[in-house]
Structures are given as structure tokens and as C-alpha cells.
Specification:
Elements lengths: L2 E3 L6 E3 L1 E3 L11 H13 L4 E2 L11 H10 L8 E6 L14 H15 L4 E6 L8 H13 L3 E6 L4 H14 L4 E4 L14 H8 L2 E4 L39 H16 L4 H9 L5 E6 L4 H8 L8 H11 L5
Parallel strand pairs: 3-10, 4-5, 5-6, 6-7, 7-8, 8-9, 9-10
Antiparallel strand pairs: 1-2
Helix pairs in contact: 1-2, 1-9, 5-6, 7-10
């Protein structure tokens, strides 16, 4: 496993991180989830991502993750969580108000069974809360030692820029992490998010680097989705459906041929492609089986040459013949 700095912070995170979205506390049984976490840790993954809304109920995935990580020294891993989405029916059970952030951080600390959270993300931008209130709440929690670094997830580029400028004006601690979606089929962050974050020293921890599993090659044209896959799971299939069109699947087949010629799996190629950018600190994978972790971790350290990158770009531009 290789490690990278999280932006310009001093924190080192594994190139491959293990996420909990749509898996732990929901469709993955507890024993399997713990087995995946153990496998990841044993292979050098030190970066574990979660959120207060992951799981069948609020904080469910955090409890699973916390139980699994309790076996290891606290200083040896980086654990994250998030807040923004509703966790109840009350008017203050959502958003990025000081009240909601502080309450959710306290609940997350308890659910994870830790004294501090390494990275706390604002899970989306909140138009109903003054930005200064949100940033001061995060700064105060850092001062209290309850979180170490602040981050944002899927914020519009202009809001990231606004937050960076406001922190500078107010003398607040800088944001350290951005968690957007990024993969071969969704590259929007290249235009503005990455340049703004690079200038501010904010590292990218990208989710869905395998496009919800489509870039593993498991989905085939004209064939039903494999049993147990996200596309075959009613509650989460909507996240995959847009990629199951013929033009995407044709690209998947062409990319699989490139991977085969390099003696890589398609998922390893897709992860190495994401990690080609120095702005990317970690790529978040999801896993329901330990063997998936083993395969994906092998992408760490793989460097794609210019010829390969050009061939990939050609495929992504529609040349699949």
C-alpha cells in the first residue's frame, strides 16, 4: 500500500480507502462487513470512511465500523464521518447549523467508539445556514479536539471557493478534504473543483471510482444484473441504472481489453486511472466481500504510462472499436 498527503495537510492516507456507503449496516451482514474491514487493515488501508446516515438507520454503519476498528490502535487508522442529511423528523435534525453539527458529532463519537474523528465532512452544502456559522462550528470542534480536520462533500465549486475565502478572512482553520464523485464516466471535478482545491491545499477523497461497480465489468449487455449486485438491489439500483446503457457498456468492454493487456483487472485499471492525478489523495472503494478488497488494493502503486492513458481517453471519447 502506498500513502499520500491529504492535500497540504500533514495527514497521510492510503491510496485506497474503504467506504461504508450502501454496504455496512444495510445490505452487508455484520460478519462480512467486519471481515472486509479486517482484510483492508491487514493490507495497509488506514483510511475508513463513514457517515451518520449510512446504514438501515442513523449511525448504524458507524457502529459496525467502530466495532471492527476497536481491535486496532486508534493512532493507526483514519476514520471519517459526515452530517447534513435528515436523521429525524425534527426541524433541526438536518443541515449544517451549529446545533445539528455538534449534536451529530457527539452521536458519531459514541457510535464509532472513539474520542476524536479524523475528518468530519459537511455532507452537502446547506443553503439554509449561514456559511460562517457552519465554518465556525467546525473550527470550534477542532479546537475542542473532537475532530482533527474539516471537509466538504459534493459542494459546488463556487461554494468551496467562498468557504476558503471566508476561513481566510476569519482566521479559521483551513478545510483539508473534499469528497466528490469521480470516475471515468463522471469527471466534472476536473474543470473547477480540483483547481480551486489545489490552490487552497484541499485534498480529494473520491467516491464511486468504479461507477457503482460498472467499471468492474460485472454488468453485461443483454444480461440480467448479477444476483446480489447493486443493480439487482431495489433500494440502491437507481444509483447504477444510468450506467447500464449500451454506450457505457461498450466502453466497459473496450476498457477491459486495455486492462487485460496490462495484466490488470478492469477495477484495478479504473482505480489506477483515478489515482493518476496527484490531487487525488484516496479512492474510496466499497466491498461486500474480502476478496474484493484484495483485488482493489492491488491498484495502489500502479502507474499508467502515457500511451495507456491516451488509449483510455480514446475509449472514453467514444472510440470503442
Amino acid at each position: 500500500m502506498e500513502y499520500r498527503r491529504l492535500g497540504k495537510s500533514g495527514l497521510k492516507v492510503s491510496e485506497i480507502a474503504l467506504g461504508s456507503w450502501l454496504t455496512y449496516g444495510t445490505v452487508t451482514e455484520r460478519e462480512q462487513a467486519v471481515a472486509c474491514i479486517k482484510q483492508a487493515y491487514d493490507l495497509g488501508v488506514n483510511h475508513f470512511d463513514c457517515a451518520n446516515v449510512y446504514g438501515a438507520e442513523p449511525h448504524a454503519a458507524e457502529r459496525v465500523l467502530g466495532e471492527a476498528l476497536a481491535a486496532y490502535p486508534r493512532e493507526s487508522y483514519v476514520v471519517t464521518t459526515k452530517a447534513f442529511w435528515p436523521v429525524g423528523d425534527g426541524p433541526n435534525d438536518r443541515g449544517l447549523s451549529r446545533k445539528h453539527i455538534v449534536q451529530e458529532v457527539e452521536k458519531s463519537l459514541s457510535s464509532l467508539g472513539v474520542d476524536y474523528i479524523d475528518i468530519f465532512y459537511c455532507h452537502r452544502f446547506d443553503p439554509d445556514t449561514d456559511l460562517e456559522e457552519t465554518l465556525r462550528a467546525i473550527d470550534d470542534l477542532i479546537a475542542q479536539g473532537k475532530i482533527l480536520y474539516g471537509g466538504i462533500s459534493e459542494w459546488p465549486a463556487e461554494k468551496i471557493a467562498e468557504a476558503v475565502q471566508l476561513q481566510k478572512q476569519l482566521g479559521l482553520r483551513k478545510l483539508a478534504a473534499s469528497q466528490p464523485v469521480y470516475n471515468m464516466f463522471n469527471r466534472y471535478i476536473e474543470n473547477a473543483v480540483i483547481p480551486i482545491c489545489d490552490a487552497a491545499g484541499i485534498g480529494q477523497v473520491v467516491f464511486s471510482p468504479l461507477a457503482q461497480g460498472v467499471l468492474t465489468g460485472k454488468y453485461k449487455k443483454g444480461q440480467p444484473a448479477p444476483e446480489g449486485s447493486r443493480a439487482a438491489t431495489p433500494k440502491v439500483s437507481r444509483f447504477v441504472e444510468r450506467f447500464l446503457q449500451d454506450d457505457f457498456l461498450d466502453k466497459v468492454d473496450a476498457l477491459a481489453n486495455i486492462a487485460k493487456n496490462l495484466d490488470l483487472t478492469l477495477s484495478q485499471l479504473a482505480l489506477a486511472w483515478v489515482l493518476r492525478l496527484p490531487s487525488i489523495s484516496s479512492a474510496l472503494i466499497g466491498a461486500s466481500r474480502p476478496e474484493q478488497v484484495v483485488e482493489n488494493v492491488k491498484a495502489s502503486g500502479v502507474r499508467l504510462d502515457d500511451e495507456t492513458l491516451a488509449a483510455i481517453e480514446d475509449v472514453l471519447n467514444g472510440n470503442t472499436k
